[in-house]
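dude i think i finally got it to work??
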Amino acid sequence: MNLYGYQEEVIQPALEGKNIIIWLPTGGGKTRAAVYVAKNHLERRRGAKVAVLVNKIHLVDQHYNNEFKPFLNGSHSIAHISGDSDQKEFFSKVVRDNDVIICTAQILENALNNTEEEKHVELTDFSLLIIDECHHTHKDAVYNKIMERYVEKKLLQEEGLPQVLGLTASPGTGGAKNLDAAKDHVLQICANLDASEIRSAKVHLAELQEKVPKPRKQYDVVHERLRDPFGDKVKELMGEIHDHIDWPDVTRRFGSQEFEQEVVELEKSGADRGNRRLRQCALHLRKYNDALLVNDTVRMIDAFNVLDTFNTHERATRGGLDDTDHFLFRVFQRSKVELQQLASTPEFENPKLAKLEHILLDQFGNSRESRGILFTKTRTSTHCLNDWIRTNVKLREAGIKPSPLTGAGFSNQAGHMTQRQQQETIQRFRDGELNLLISTSVAEEGLDIPQCNLVVRYGLLTNDIATKQAQGRARAEDSVYSVVAQSGGRELRREHTNEYLEELTEKAIDEVQRMAKRDYHMKIRDLQKEAIVTRRLALGKAEEKRNTHDPSVVILHCRRCNNAVCHGSDLQVIEGTHHVNINPLFEVYYKLGVKVCLGKKFEDWEPGHTINCKECGQDWGMEMIYKAVTLPMLSIKKFVIATPKGRYSCKQWKGVTFQIDEFDYIAYCQRKFEDLLPNFN
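look at this
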């Protein structure tokens, strides 16, 4: 393996067995440098074993095929395991049988917690941990859960812990706005990774800058629409709903992110209080606000379709309509034709699209070899922009061949992409079948995407790390990094702020690098001790919270219709993650929907159909076919929890105030199939 001088420079302490963080820009070859460290480690240390941890599933195959396999295969055995892999069922054996294991961090975390012998591993089973995109080692992220365990063992002076090598293009500032706070953030990342130092190119900086040139950055500023009758009509309808619930005057914030947060809180308040009128109006107000945000990003017809699809779906799936429902449907229905006509009037179209058209034509019209990435905020906007480009005659004639690229997780937006679909899309991009990816943040970090001539950030509000990562995608010679934003808008201000924060990050890292070794190590140790104390206190509080109420006195109500549907004692949890209702009588409260396809395999279970409230149609989750039984698996955010001390709602199960027992498969089967099974008691 041949490394550049700057790569050799940054890995030197790692070759000596020290824990370090490598800080190199996107495209600087961090992973290749890590492969070199792994190869050296395996050759010099008897019985060495390397774990390469990534935070996204698609990076498992990518690192295996593009980096580790080409240089290590033949001389060392390599296994790559993601959530789709059957090998995770025998993780401990895979670790024993291979020299290098590339996996998602969650798989390792699960194995560290698992008590089954064939799945359990210890940190001491490894001699080197390589942590990709290690700036995610903070707060409750899975990287940090693994490293908290590591740091605690080290402070207790346990032996045999692995060497740690972190890789990052930008640690960021952690929200800090001044140098001291930014420095503290960098030190905290170093403490979390137990790093003896953070390494960057100094001696060979000129070589790095030559190999990874910065793109030409341009601000493509768009002036506000002179007239927006479609948006004005939407705001008028929002005003009617606003007056119906007599909400304090917030009309001036319609169409903003701030209003979205306010209406989310309003919906929560309505649900917690059992005020169905307030909750339903809040849901519709949020959808109208979504339409305004879409109108500000893509076409008016896309915004109209958001409202039309929502109202059509609500009418089709809802049961037990009341006066509030009829009022809300009437508000949209009587203005539907007018909204559709306004959305089809070209003179009122979003000026950002004209600016984007100019940027794309300027790049692709001059070179049919161009490749680009268009970053946008939501999955909905990726599909809308893809449709706009495919139906735009000028862009088609310029040879632009677009495709959406989105994440694998489920959301209430347009459909997700499976890992295979992501890989196929990127391969088509690599082969030239596609030359423009329209992507959410999934393409900012990690994905092995070929060099691009053009990167466009289209109306985005993101942090400094995302800006740095996206900018690093424009790595071709004479590439362009464009920021499309409205004049005087928040996106423009945020981009300028991110530029400042990038500089602040560099200064903070430089300050950390120049600290006296003794001062640095004392600070790291103090931060590690503080983190352990804080974590133990938090765990104690969480346990205390979970014991606030007896499960038998807790009642779950449907969030939409407020019907009481089950007790807390009806619930059990499978593998610490999947919350199911084991009461056979629960089935009278729900109806089955469509078959769920998750696009990946699971060890002991598979999805069944969606489940919805029989009374109002609210989605509650889906069936879980676990081994030989089918159980309703619930999403807690679809319910309101009633206790003797009041009602509340929460987004995650960890927020509930009662204990949920682990699912006992044998006991459940004996109760359910008592006529067929023997009683072993």
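Residues 5-211+523-531 form a domain with the Rossmann fold fold (CATH 3.40.50.300).
im so relieved honestly
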